Amino acid sequence: MRFIKRGLSYLTIASYVGILLFGILCHTFTYRTGSHPGMYYIVWDMFCGWSAYSVRTHIIGEGISGKYYELSPGPWGDFYPYGKLGRRHYDTTGDAWVRMAMNTLDKTEHEPMLRILCIEETWCKKYNLPDMVWDQRYEEPKDFQNYYRLRRVITPEGIVAQSYVPWLTRQASLQLNDNPRLIAEMNRGRPFFAATIGSQVEATAPSQHDPNLPVHLASPVGN
Amino acid sequence: MDAPEVISNSNNSLRDRFQNFFFAKEVPYGLAIVRMLLPMILLGTVCTRWPYSRELFSADGAPAPLADIFQYYDFLPILPGTVVVGLFAALGFFLFCSSIGWMTRFSLIASTILYTYFCFMDCISMATKYSVIATHAMFLLSLSHCGAIWSVDSWLKGRKQRQSWPQYTRYELPRYEIWPQRLMQILICLVYFGAAITKMHTPGYLEGDQISYWAMSRYNNPHPIGEFMTLYPILLSVMSYIAMIWEIAFVFVVWRKWGRIIGIAMGTAFHIGTTFSLGLYIFPMVSISIYFCFLNSEDVQWISARVRRLSRKGGWFYQFATELGKFRERLRPQSLSVWQSPAAWMTSIAAVLVLSIYVEHQQDLYGLRRAEGKLALHEVDPELVAEMMGPEQVMRVKDKFLAVDVGTQMAGGWIINRKQEFKAGEMILVQCALNPPHEDIWIDCHFCEETGRIVQRTGQIAARENMRATFQIYPPEILEPGNYYVSIRSKGKEVLRRSITLLPNLAPVAN
């Protein structure tokens, strides 16, 4: 019995330390860190970087009357997990937006909805500074501006109909595309994949460039 | 071969060191303190979430399963609302029992399983890195004998044993293999090491930019000191270096006496610092509570000797402690069957389940059982909707700039002596901090008279990966003392301005 107990202790020590070290190595070399939910428990990425912009989320529903309604928080109130911000603002991936909206619609009295809109609100973080700190570093008055961007359109049945990248990603993309040479090269090298079977797969098939054979090109949307 | 050599070799072999490190027997003081503190902290987070548990974790709400982010859909079952309400209350009860040490092992195992499940069910407001660390610690506690001392279990057990044991064993506390405590220590070391790796991966961390943006954010609790510290980015940079070096060094130094004291003192200061500078509350509490796993028998003997000496000096304290001890003994049941404590524990669980479900039903979170009917949705202000649904907005030029600072000396890539008054002929450094993302951008720096006439103009390209652009201005000595300003311009517009006063140069004139 004593040997079994000691053996189990060895096994526990070896397994636990091994799993922790595996997590450290995966994290160090960015290897399969997103491969399994369990990785969240062994990868210590406590400081993933913070953006220069504050982001907030609005989930609203458009009724058939043309009126818009707040779908998150629900009319019963909001939960503030880590400070003074509601729960929806911490959902950076937007994975729970559909559930939040549908839960509110399910539990409330309302007119039929046309669509549900998830809108992102962004502003530069420097405007978060309190006036006392602002006055010490800036001579200009605060010139606060919000940027809004539609992130997702959801049907009343809870199906995501349209999805768009975050405002910051869009801005970075616009800045990158502000380069005629790059755009010209990008257009020349536009990616495609052939919907027909290639000659490498089936030797008897006609050449892909056979003028008599239609070539179906499928490019990624929005490229 | 002589005897001392044999003894020396056998004691220093790798196997013996391993045995001593993991299997030495000690009284589990450290783990007992962790057991008392950590579940109590988690209980606080459970209590704040319980009224919303139906919404946060159940199929009758809007859960956010962690596994969904990893594309593992339906990884764990999402339970019905009433079941979740009961289980979440039971989690609170198990955490409380773990803390007081009542049915410790079972309470800890149940707490670990339920806490992990609920973290998996809500990655938005429950699963964070502090909850992950806490889960690990709870798991290790459930493997240990942390309930053997300073617990209700030991209190109940003590009476029976004390009657049969001889007097000299009265103060002998049970000793157990130390390996769960060692695993918790290794966990802390590797967490810090991993955190240091993350910081190495994070661009702009060592320069202090990332901490600065974090201090400007409002995702956590208020942190006025952090906001104030954004005025001194060089300080943030220095602190970032110290934090990273400490996190790497921790695993190497913490095993020796002074290394342990310094490492833990710095860690405590670091975590308390994050409360004031970044608005973190729970994370520091969790981290500091698990530091007690580094406490060993010698530390406790040293502390208790000093407490005893102090209590003897302060008569009232000694008297109070004696009275408290007597009171505790009076409360102790005289005879308790083996089954009575587990039975009371099971009954309490049943009571917690029933009571919590009843209270939550009465609370009616969604207002579904109101006499007036279901709640109505709140209408959004049409003006706000019009603003939100407007045409696509492009980033303003001024939002690509964080600040402009003026001084004469630089360190760590920052101006360290921000000032407004300069002598004619003195070099003026103008530093323009940029917000990411920005394109490759041309920045003009104009040194102007108060009237707006340009005295000196310079400019440079700030590549998209650069967070700062620094300009040098040499105001000629022939300039009149007075008020001037530096204007930072981009795309033909002034985005930032900083006033400067030129003082007369009072250098001694040669005869």
List the helices and strands and how they pair.
The complex is a heterodimer of chains A (223) and B (511).
Chain A lengths: L1 H27 L24 E11 L4 E5 L24 H10 L1 E2 L3 E12 L6 H7 L9 E8 L5 E4 L3 H11 L2 H9 L35
Antiparallel strand pairs in A: 1-2, 1-4, 4-5, 5-6
Chain B lengths: L2 H10 L1 H10 L1 E2 L2 H21 L3 H5 L8 H4 L11 H20 L3 H18 L7 H15 L8 H13 L11 E2 L1 H23 L7 H8 L7 H6 L3 H21 L3 H22 L3 H9 L6 H17 L1 H17 L8 H24 L11 E2 L1 E2 L2 H7 L12 E7 L2 E2 L2 E2 L5 E3 L4 E7 L6 E9 L4 E9 L5 E6 L8 E9 L2 E11 L8
Parallel strand pairs in B: 8-14
Antiparallel strand pairs in B: 1-2, 5-9, 6-7, 9-12, 10-11, 10-13, 13-14
Helix pairs in contact in B: 3-6, 3-8, 3-15, 6-7, 6-18, 7-8, 8-10, 8-15, 10-13, 13-14, 14-15, 16-17
Spatial separation of the terminal alpha carbons of chain A:
67 Å
| Overall pLDDT level of chain B | 90
Mean model confidence by pLDDT of chain A:
87
Number of domains of chain B: 2
* DSSP strand count of chain B: 14
| Strand residue content of chain A | 15-25%
Q: Output the structural class of chain B.
A: alpha+beta
Total of DSSP H or I helical runs spanning 4+ residues of chain A: 5
Approximately how much helix is present in the residues of chain B?
A: 40-55%
Number of domains of chain A: 3
State the helix count of chain B.
19
Main β-sheet description of chain A: 5 strands, antiparallel
Labels describing this entry:
heterodimer, A: 223 residues, alpha+beta, 3 domains, five-stranded antiparallel sheet, 5 helices, 6 strands, 19% strand, extended, B: 511 residues, Immunoglobulin-like, 2 domains, five-stranded mixed sheet, three-stranded antiparallel sheet, 14 strands, globular, disordered N terminus
